[in-house]
Amino acid sequence: MTSQNNVLKGVFLVALGATTYGMLATFVKMAYTEGYTTAEVTTSQFIYGILGILLINLFQRIKNKNSAVKASPKNIFNLMLAGTSLGMTSLFYYLAVKYIPVSIGIVLLMQTVWMGVLLEMILEKKLPSKQKVIAVCIVLFGTVLATNIINNDIELDWRGLLWGMLAAASFTTTMFTANSVATEISSAQRSLYMLLGGAVIVFSFAFATQVTAFNLEIFLKWGIVLSLFGTIIPPLLMTAGFPLTGIGLGSIVSALELPVSVMMAYILLNEKVIFSQWVGIVLIILAIIIMNVNFKRKR
After folding, report:
1. Where are the domains of the chain?
2. pLDDT (tens digit, 9 = 90+) per residue, 221-265?
3. What is the pTM of this model?
4. For the residues of 68-130, what is the DSSP string, one character each?
């Protein structure tokens, strides 16, 4: 009974984390409509995110009376290096939703499903299972429907599509590195150093692209919201929930991010989402379920 309760607790934590992250792109789009730049949005998010995670680390250190395993210089370097892909994911994703609807941007980010299979095939030097191949085919078909590229009435900006695919590629890298680098130290420490690595990318981008004076009002209006929904709450909930659910069930539950993101865009941004797009979204979620249920059985 206790084991079942732990799984349910894990499902709740992962679902809440995925739901929170699913709301993020809509808030970014709303910040854009108020005239803020990508540099301002990402910089404020990462600065508040680092401060938030620093406080969490400090609280844990006091609670554990400095007994927790501390990160070595090698751990810090590897995590910061891995964190650069985290910074690139945020940048690419936010640049994507600047040019295309949020409902399309989240679908492009979900291309991590087949990109992950491809990366796994390259790293392990073996062909994927039939179940994974079927899942990839369903994802690709679902993407065609979800992005509505068959209908000529919607013209998608190629810049948004390019940034969206780059976001998916960097997110795939983040997922692989986040689960394998310096796993012996606490998740709060790992989050901090990965954020610092991501901040190097974000701040470099801001320095290179911000041609007007930096609008400091972003810190009062959107910075806290973006850091909470994108940098602090989802990673903490996911890292707490995944050990309780396992990778298979956790991945299925985290797919909630997709419909939540589309619903938020539909309600708050009045983005048009037709029936065939909903069918495509359901197919992508179905593919994630197929892939992870079979993975779980295989284990």
Report:
1. 2-298
2. 999 999 999 888 887 887 778 778 776 677 778 888 889 999 999
3. 0.86
4. SPPPPHHHHHHHHHHHHHHHHHHHHHHHHHHHS-HHHHHHHHTTHHHHHHHHHHHHHTSPPPH
